[in-house]
Amino acid sequence: MTNLSVSETSPLRRRVLRAAVAAAAAVCTVVACSPVSNGGSGDQPGDNQSAGQDSFGTPADPAAVKQGGKLVIALSAEPDALDPTLSRSLYSRYVFQAMCQKLYDVNEQAQVVPQLATALPTTSSDGRTVTIALRQGVRFADGTAFDSAAVKATLQRHLTNARSARKSELGPIDGVDTPDAQTVVLRLKQPFAPLLGALADRAGMVMSAKALQSLGDDFASAPVCVGPFKFAKRVPQNSIDVVKDPNYYEANKVHLEAISWRILSDASIRAANLRSGDAQVADSVSTQDVGSLRQDASLSVLQSQSLGYQGLTINIGNVDGVGTAPKPINRPLAQNAKVRQAFEHAIDRKALVGAVFNGVHTAACSPISPASPFSSPEAQNCPAHDPAKAKQLLAEAGVQTPYAVTMLASNTPDTLRLAQALQSMVKDGGFELKINPVEYSSLLDEQDRGNFELLQLGWSGRIDPDANITNFVGTGASQNVSGYSNPQLDTLLTQARQAGDVEERKKLYGQAVALLQQDDALIYLYRQRNLTAVSKQIQGLQVFPDGVIRAAFAGFTK
Amino acid sequence: MARYLLTRAWQSALTLLLSTIVVFFGVRALPGDPALALAGEDRSPEALEAIRHHYGLDQPLPLQFAQYVERMAQGDFGVSIRTGTPVSSMLTTALPVTVELAVLAILIATALGVGAGVLAAVRRGRPAEWLANGLALIGLSVPHFWLGLLAILYLSVATGLFPASGFVPILEDPVDNLHHIVLPAVILGTGLAAIIMRQTRSAMLDSLSSDYVRTAKAKGLRPRAVITRHALRNSLIVVVTVVGLQLGGLISGAVVTEQIFGLPGFGKMTIDAVFQRDYPVIQAVVLLTATAYIVINFFVDLLYSVIDPRIRVTGDPA
Questions:
Q1: Which residues pair with A145 in a beta bridge?
Q2: Which residues of A touch B33 (CB under 8 A)?
Q3: Does residue A444 sit at the B interface (CB-CB below 8 Å)?
Q4: Mean pLDDT, consecutive 10-residue segments, chain B of 318 residues?
């Protein structure tokens, strides 16, 4: 498939599919989008970006911004505990970004760069000793010194706290040494490449040892870290306020006096607050609103392709719940990979994102984002949309058509539109899709219990590809809700996790994607764009591919 | 009177106990697991187990209930599973917001509703009645969220007269507080104003055609005195009942209004807690709402006798 044409999707029986094709065709006509279905082509720069190039925002020009002012950011969901050890939501990362710096950070190219460390870590030849040099002259918001002892106290808390969400991310750490105040040495039981990615996220946020001692498990009530801003006030389920921290080592680069995150879960209310000037930034803009917000001369929309994905998980062995040994399920979809491949061939991803998300999100066929340094042509290969082949595969599998499949999905408007578009699309491939919408908490519950045939969910994505793959498809992994197991894939993933070289890991992930597409326990559908609307009164606000809003060094335009 | 109060108190306590049981077990019968909702994307079996253990969710249900009742008896509402904040402190922040919103909404609704109702009854068959009836119909039919969105669109985004969201506590800045809360209160009050208007109108029509009003008129009292001192006073009994019953409805209406205007009140807290399966918060909120209903009904009954001395409270409330 070199471009989308009506003949490839005929016969068009449903209005939704007609709308899908029309919208996608319109998008393609305007921006001449290229397909993802040709193996390898997806790796080209600019590919998968039919709605325009990414725009991450630019750093503020100190001469053009005022000093002071309170920035109000309308957030779509409430952050959970403001404790780097316990935090589990994307939204707390927005707040942490302003007040809890990390050993490493991520740049626009999704590469890891030093933040509280002075350079990338040095790893011993056997891959088991990682040495990190720390910045000097840095103080926490409570005035205490930032040193290797604080890093050690933080990492030990991550590793030993019973409710820690960081323990597994830190991998096989055996111990933490502090040869001097500015050096931390991590000893590993075996090499662990994803460690760097973890230290560029919450696991790398260093907490004040004094605050940890006095607050213990209540650290979230008054978190103390190193950052441009320090915690001021939280009104649960409503707002979080931080104020400029005079102790910050580069306080002269901080222009704002305060930042307030206000939780407004409705997208149109967030947009209204932005337009009325009550908020200057709104996250998670709906793809339905992007057009009108872009036309507003007082606003700009930042967009970056996320590192995560949205996909379909097929239950092929989750009978007794996630984490238990897979058991056979007596359904052709679970037992025969050909039926699953047929389902994948029945899906026209481009038309799907065109119709449902106005072409803003992009089609995806693998867990590795093209924005990731670990992407390769093999990792971006995409099985073609081919309803005829789908029918042929179903015939080979010996199942009667239309083959009925029930899909469990979240009951949000966006997901329901996606489900309906899918429903009409896979019909041409010989499937009869039934939609079973449930509310999000119930969906998670059913998913983990294995009470589903097919389900739609996604993953927000992490910097290191291992964190986007192994946990979901590795044998017995904690989020392998499909009950999928392929020893060959497990070996590849273990090798990739222990390899120090980017090129070698790239190659291994390319091979892993090929295996994933052969077994099709997880069918990747699309990759969301992080959409953030910003008032033009604000300069220097940035959003990188990790999806985190970087507001700490922004300022109001003079 | 004392016997009546005692009976009502006993009944209220029983209702509260039943509500506690229904809420506790009802919330747990919902599909969805708070540990899963909290663990979100980063969940692992160990983390889930640790969360369940930390919040006592791994204990048998009867034991959890016994512990809950014991804590409640000591005034301890527990800790929010989502944010780790004590529920009592969440309530003390959220409750004043909702109370202020509800009280303001009811004042606005009563002023508008009673005024329009009396006007419609007195000016029966004239344009004033049609207008009042038309407005009441709109007030009843248009949902809060739609009205709220329109208000934000025209009064916040387009004209900038009112803030689109946010809240300032009354003790911090009373003027700013009023500026933030007046629009949501008006929106919340519209439905109630319409109901009050209709009830007042029909009660007034009844009163105006009754013998005592005719007598009052025959005595030569001025029309204003006839309307306010005789007809309205008797009509108010209906209005008070309606206002009392609707006060509970206001709390559910506040859920939507607070969500739209981003007010950190009870309603917003409830919605978020339900979605996150934050059991301690849901339990506390429902129990407080139940208590509010019981107390309001109690006072409404007492108010009857104040407004109309012919109604006497006896030991048998039925």
A1: A139
A2: 441, 444-445
A3: yes
A4: 79 86 88 80 76 88 91 86 84 88 91 89 84 86 87 89 86 90 92 88 82 80 77 78 75 81 84 86 86 79 71 53
